[in-house]
Design goal:
Blueprint: E1 3-4, H1 7-15, E2 22-23, E3 28-34, E4 42-50, E5 53-57, H2 64-77, E6 86-88, H3 100-107, E7 111-114, H4 115-123, H5 127-140, H6 145-151, H7 155-164, E8 169-171, E9 176-179, E10 182-188, E11 197-201, E12 206-210, H8 231-241, E13 249-252, E14 258-259, H9 261-284, H10 291-295, H11 309-328, H12 352-356
Parallel strand pairs: 5-6, 6-7, 7-8, 12-13
Antiparallel strand pairs: 1-14, 2-3, 3-4, 4-5, 9-10, 10-11, 11-12, 13-14
Helix pairs in contact: 5-7, 9-11
Amino acid sequence: MIEITGDLQRQAWKDKRLPPVERLEGGLWSVPVVFPNNPMRYTLSYVMVDGGDCLVIDPGFDSDEGYAQLGAALERIGPGISGVTGVFATHYHADHLGMARRVADAAGTWVAVGRGDRDVLRGYGEPGGAMEEDRLQYRGWGVPEEKLAEVLLPRFAFERIREEAAVDRVLDGGEELPVGGRVLRTEATPGHTPGHLMLWDDAARMVLSGDHILPRITPNVSLVPHEHPDPLRSYLASLERTAEAEDHEVLPAHEYRFRGIGARARALRAHSMERLDEVLAALEAQADPSVYSVAGRIGWSRGWESLGGFQLRIALSETAAHIQFLATSGLHSGVPGLPAVPAEPGGPVVPEAAASGAGPSSAGAS
């Protein structure tokens, strides 16, 4: 359904190794930055150099190894760290925004992020209170006491969130970012995070998609405190807006480059519909369902029993997002622990099989 254009990136992904630094069209470079102790392994950062300007997009997770990788690539490209004139993060997650402040401070320049994500970061209070809020959230979702410790975020994660809130420029989508003689256009694509932004380089027929659209993996859409109360609805609406530019090469932050954004957006939407059918069937099969009990009945790619730690946390918050969508669509009353949101019966996207009462579909991995 898609045309793979990043052959070296794809082979490296299959071989579980870092891809090479690559020079692309339009003064753009692809630079892998390691993501330690995570199944994603690395982030594909992008560097645009033109007319004395150097914009770093999604600099990656903040580690000494990653900083050295990015610095070495920038020296090869030309300007070095000191020549960076701007840092842009498609969204606030640590493997995208994490190293932004470090790079910007070393270069004496700015960090930009979407307004929704800046607001999320600012919404967290002091770490102790945030940790207790986190505990109450997952306990309310039915996580057994013996499992709670492994799904909760450690204190340093909430300390890092407060540090990452120090951004210099806030964007809403629709802005133009000049880089020398080139112009990048921002587009708001909420869902994966509330302030997720994509960057379009229409002159070069490229779009930097962040985590909104990936070639093989289904991006995680989670219900998270301080974020949008119905994130899956936002994500599906964003997919509808980004399914048009079939001639643009897609430069994602993970996996590999490809063409066929419309086909991929339709496939992601279809997967979401199948997962919604599956979640609805799990809800209706239980007298007193919870987020945890529903998640345990869903077909995860490596199996429910294999999920632990952060992967279990993500699975639960993703399940909660699907339950919330069904509740706000008027298809189910929901479960304890979900934020109150006015129902939108027959909203912009409703799973046809679920609405007709058909059985669950066999959803793939999320």
